[in-house]
């Protein structure tokens, strides 16, 4: 919940900028000073014992995020693995980006759900085998949109999300095969 008008104004301004950016793909002017668009995100993490890591975000320092490994891998199973959290970040970021894009498109959406999110990883990369990436090889995801909008509008929404979602773009930049389906919720 936003408590101060200063924070609300900042959020509304950020929302307005996001909506304009998502409306259409425009190349940046070569002479434009992009420093005014750069935002720094901060996380702190600590591990005092074993594989449990507790992180907090600068935007929400009162909420801790536990990351761990399963007991079978020497962890204590006190939280999702970092890889699982990366998939959760991907689905969350796509949904939030979709909300901004839909607002800019004047698209009415009741709900958006990620009903499938799975990543395939070659574990040899984690073991340091040369030539094998330590990141996901592929990610499969299905999003269901509850809306009365046309299938064409859902397709346009998907395109805008994939172009503008920072987490999606990080996966794509790592040459992860992204198999993404957006469909109407039955």
Structural account:
- The chain folds into 2 domains: 40-79; 81-186, GMP Synthetase, Chain A, domain 3 (2-Layer Sandwich).
- The protein is of the alpha+beta class.
- The radius of gyration is 19 Å and the shape is globular.
- It contains 4 helices and 6 strands, in the order αβββαββααβ.
- It has helices at 5-23, 82-104, 151-164, 166-173; strands spanning 43-46, 53-57, 60-67, 111-121, 136-146, 177-184.
Q: Total strand count, please?
A: 6
Let me know the average pLDDT.
Answer: 88
Gyration radius, rounded: 19 Å
Helix content: 25-40%
CATH architecture of the largest domain: 2-Layer Sandwich
Derived structural class:
alpha+beta
| Number of discrete domains | 2
What share of residues are in beta strands? Answer: 25-35%
CATH fold field value of the largest domain: GMP Synthetase, Chain A, domain 3
N/C terminus separation = 32 Å
CATH superfamily (homologous) name of the largest domain: K homology (KH) domain
- Alpha plus pi helix count: 4
Main beta-sheet annotation: 3 strands, antiparallel
Fold blueprint:
Layout: H1 5-23, E1 43-46, E2 53-57, E3 60-67, H2 82-104, E4 111-121, E5 136-146, H3 151-164, H4 166-173, E6 177-184
Helix pairs in contact: 1-2, 2-3
InterPro entries: KH_dom-like_a/b, OsmC/Ohr_fam, OsmC/Ohr_hydroprdx_reductase, OsmC/Ohrsf
Task: Provide a compact summary of the structure.
The chain folds into 2 domains: 40 residues; 106 residues, GMP Synthetase, Chain A, domain 3 (2-Layer Sandwich), CATH 3.30.300.20.
Keywords for this entry:
GMP Synthetase, Chain A, domain 3; alpha+beta; OsmC/Ohr_fam; KH_dom-like_a/b; 3-stranded antiparallel beta sheet; 34% helix; 2 domains; 186 residues
